[in-house]
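Amino acids appear as letters; backbone shape is given numerically. Here is one record.
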Amino acid sequence: MRQFLIVTGALLSLAACGHTDGTRAVTGGLIGAGGGALVGSATGLGAGTGAVIGGVGGAGVGALTTPNKR
């Protein structure tokens, strides 16, 4: 459970990289996949499974966030 919270926090803080819904989804997915692979391999879940879970979560969060207004 602790690993899930760590990954979720990382996804929420990093998923909004980009200016359009598509770029935020892609960057969120890539960041999530990388983090998920690390956590998955460290917890015994498996790097591939962790990458899939993190990638899907990151893409979803990235697509649903609003861009920073500058």
